[in-house]
Structure formats: structure tokens, C-alpha cells
Amino acid sequence: MAIGKAKDAVLMVMLAAAGAMVLAAQGQSNEVKFTGKVEVLPAGTLIGVWTVEARRVVVSQTTRIEQERGPVVVGSCVEVEGTRNADASIAAKEIKVRSGQGGCMAPGQDRDEVEFRGVVQSIASVSGIDRWAISGRVVNVMPATKIEPTGRRPGVGDCVDVKGELRSDGYVWAERIQGIGQGACQQPASSRDEPKLVGLVQTLPASGLVGNWRVSDQTVAVAATTRIEMDRGVIQVGSCVEVRGTLQAGVLSATRIETEKPEECTRTQSGRFEFAGVVEAMPAGGRAGDWRISGRTVTATATTVFDTDRGPFVLGACVEVQGTMTATGVIQAARMEVKSSSGACIFRNGVVNAGSFSSFAVSPAQIVSIFGMNLGPATELPLQVGSDGRVSNRLGNTRVLFDGVPAALLLASQGQINAVTPCAVAGKQNVTVQVESNGAWTNTLTLPVLPAVPSIFTLSNSGRGPGAILNFDPATNSYSTNGAGNRIPRGGVAVIYATGFGQTNPACVDGAVPNAMPLPMPLLPLTATIGGKTAVLQYAGAAPGLVHGVFQVNAVVPADVEPAPNVPVVITVGGRASQEGVTIAVR
């Protein structure tokens, strides 16, 4: 089997070379089409002159750039189609990314064994090869490919399991395709994106924030357990907010409320519901009618706006829906947008600080959590340390790229990835994030970059409540977890775990696990308060034995702190404070 595949790869290379020689011999057509590695890009934009395999490629506003298989960066493998100019440069009509990184090696040079489940989106024959599109991946199906069940060949819309080789040209060469029927690729209800309401606050409770709110004509019930984030402004009448929760009997019971930029609410004054999902069924013969998106019914009409800038509406595509929700739970769609045709996507505001769970911004070597659909393997994979002693930037053929730079990965699963922001984001104003999993690429998100975005880890992994804090006992030289049943005495040393401290000395190294002296220390000034009192710091730097990006602060609990099971803790780095609501138990 392996010998046969190698022969196929050699044949494709020979055919490509022959085609290039024929084009050169003709010498009459100005039409040019070639594949090559991106060597030079214009500064800060994609419009301008590129260098691709030593050729000058002129990219204009009308050039169609397709980045479904990865971002355009130096080192990308791209296919260029255009016309030859008088000065031998190429005026690009269309550029398609074939591989997001690593250049254009011949098929067979760089292979990964892959297995994934996806929806068959199209089947075509290209140069004698059956080429299937399966959840955004191009799959070459050869005569030797085993297709099951033998009595029924899978068709468009079917869910299939694929086993094969992902090669550096971005194609999957299938060894086996197992049809498992229509509907089997439906996303489990437990991992779906819950609808959210974006609207203006019209009324608030008479005192405090607990009680019933009115948000764009929708009643919102806020409990003491509702998480409220105010990174983008305080909550007041007129604020633009995003509300997540459950809708029952016309009341939205909020689990989380986050302030938004005012412009997010300018598109509608009556409020809108939004959610992301995978297309499972489409209306026959057009777009108007009932859709099935991740188990939910969505009704589109002639006035619904369809955005296809990131790809077509196809079965298996990941889409975002905006509209109003009826009492029966049906979404009346005002707008539907394709996030990625692969069905793998990052949720809007889905890249968050792993300590605070805020999507406000990122900083160098910050631990982040990325939420979405079909991001990684079906089975959760923990971090791996390579032979170089660094945390790997690939788990189960899953990568996370920040402006094309792979991030160290701490966990990869279908719905969540934990990663460390690369050191290279330092000094940037913004950074673009994208996930690749088994050859499928998600949509991109662009996030602001700040010198530091400190946050404290919490025991509940929610960003609030008891912090991830250890009590140090000098008598036994031991540590124990702080909590209501194990309070720390005033004057005791608390070891607080956090992230987002920014650049360090010695300098940040992606995926490094600091253990030896000198340990990396933050360059920006750092302070800590416990119960509003300034704490004396015995140490503030990298956490020994943990990936660079996890920091620990050894703070002495001030003697004049009022004892309580929930004393507030705040760390400030470079003038920016960690999230509110993190506590330590003091006796």
C-alpha cells in the first residue's frame, strides 16, 4: 500500500512538471497559474507586491484571496492564478492558500496520519482523481481507497469517518472512508454554542444588580451566581451588553453578562439573539425556508442577509446566526454568516484569558482558552513535552497560530483548546488567531495586544471565587490548598498562581519550562493587595516546573487584614489590575 501511494505522488509531480514545460514551450498565453512558497509580503497589508518562489506577484483590491487552509504569511504555500505583465510580474486574479506554513514540499515529503469525522460537501473528478470535499478538507480518493459500506457509496450530505495521510500540499490522501449515514455528524447538545442576547440595558433593579433587568425589551433574570464582566465599561442604563443564559417562559435567566462596545448595539435597538452552529439541513431549492443548525430550527426569509465572504453555505459549514427568538425557540434569522466552510470555527469572543475568562486582549506568554466547534480531537489530549524539554505546539494534528506562529498547547479537544500566546506578539497592536486541525482551518479572530493582561487562576476555573492559592507552612516547609476549611493566618505566605505578566528577564521562550536559576521575572512593575492592603512580595516570577506563562506570586498576608473566608486578592502589573471577584480565605 505504501509503495503504491509513493508511485501516485511521483506521478503527480511528473505531471505538474510536464504541464509547466508545455506552458513555457507555448509562450503565447499571458495566463499564468503556479504554486509556490510565499517569500516576501508587503508590510502590514496584503495589497501590494509579493514574492512567491522568486516571482513578483502584484496583488490588488480585486484579487480574490482564499485562506480556508491557513493564513497568508511568509512560508505559506499558495496557488497563484493571474496574467503576465510586460515587466514579467504577475497580476494576480486569485490566490489560494494550500498550506498555512512550511512551504510547498512535494507530496510524500511531509505526512501526518490523520483520522477525522466530517460531512461530505462535494465530490468531483480532477485529473482522473476523485476529489472529495469533507468538512473543509480536500480528500483525494484513489482506486486503492477502501470505501465502506461496500453496498452504498457515501454521497453529498453523508457523515463519514476518514483515515489517511495529510500531506504538505494540504490534501488528505484517503486510505479508508467509512460512511456512517446522514445526521451522525450532528454536534452533541452539551457542546453547542448557547444563544446570546446583545442589546441595550433599559432598566435595572432598584438596588444592586441582582434581580430582573430589561434588555432591549427582553426580561433578564440576574442571580447572585450570574457572572458579570465589565472590562468594556460599567453596567448602567444605556449600556450595551451581551447576555448568555437559558430562555424559558419569555425570561432569559442569565449565567453571564458582559459589557460590549456601544457600536455592537447600533445595528438594532430591539436586541438580537446570536449563536454559532454547524449546518445540518438546508431548504430545498434555495435559501428561504427552515434550516437545521446544530439541532436548532432557523427560519430564513427573502429579507435575511447571507454573508459568504468566508465561504459558501454548504452542509457541514460553521455559521453564525443573528435574529429574534420566538416563544417556541425558533430563530427568525435577520443575518446568517459563514464563519468557515470546514465546520471548524472559533466562537465570537472565543479566545479568552484562561485566568479571568475575559476576551478583552492578550499579552506575550499568556495562557489562553479558545472555545469553538470541531477545534481538535474527539478525545481530549493533554500537553506533551518534546525531547527539547519544551511543551509541544501540536497535539493530535491540531495547532493554534498567532499571526502564523504556532503556540504551545496545554490541552486540545473538540470544544476547547488551552494554549500559550507566543512571545512574538510582544510589541504588536493586534494579532490574528486561527486553529488548524487535521488539515481543516477555522475562521480567524483578531485580538488587541497589551504589554500585560494579568489574571489570577481560580479553583473553579471560572475566573471568580477562591483563587488558585497555596498556604506555605514554614514549620514543615510544606504547601496546602487555601480554602474556607484551610485559611491562611495573617502574616503567612500565600503562593498565588496567575498569568498575563508580559515580557520577562530572562526573555520569554515559547513552550519553555523554567526550572533553573535565574527564573524569568516580569519586566513591568508588579504589586499585590489582599483585602485592599498592600502585601509584601517575597517572590514574583515564573512558576518553577510549569510552562512559561504560568507565574507565581509569594505574598505575605498583611497583619491588618480583616479575617474572612472571601478576602479579595488583586495583582497589578504595569498599571493593569487582575480581575475582580478572586478571593483568599484568611484567619
Protein model, in words:
The structure is a single chain. With 587 residues, this protein is mostly beta strands. The chain has six domains: 2-99, OB fold (Dihydrolipoamide Acetyltransferase, E2P); 111-179, Nucleic acid-binding proteins (OB fold (Dihydrolipoamide Acetyltransferase, E2P)), CATH 2.40.50.140; 190-270, OB fold (Dihydrolipoamide Acetyltransferase, E2P), CATH 2.40.50.140; 273-340, Nucleic acid-binding proteins (OB fold (Dihydrolipoamide Acetyltransferase, E2P), Beta Barrel); 345-448, Immunoglobulins (Immunoglobulin-like, Sandwich); 455-586, Immunoglobulin-like. The chain contains one helix and 47 strands. Strands 13, 14, 15, 16, 17, 18, 19, 20, 21, 22 and 23 form an eleven-stranded mixed β-sheet that branches. The termini are far apart. The model is unreliable at 1-29 (pLDDT under 50).
Q: Spans with pLDDT under 50 lasting ≥5 residues?
A: 1-29
- What is the approximate shape? globular
> Based on helices, strands and strand pairing, what is the structural class?
mainly beta
- The tally of beta strands, per DSSP, is 47
Strand content: over 45%
Averaged pLDDT: 84
For this structure, what is the CATH class of the largest domain? Mainly Beta
State the helical fraction. under 10%
* Distance separating the two termini: 69 Å
- The second-level CATH architecture of the largest domain is Sandwich
Task: Tally the structural domains.
Answer: 6
How can the largest sheet be summarized?
11 strands, mixed
User: What is the gyration radius calculated from CA atoms?
Assistant: 26 Å
DSSP summary: helix tally: 1
CATH topological fold name of the largest domain: Immunoglobulin-like
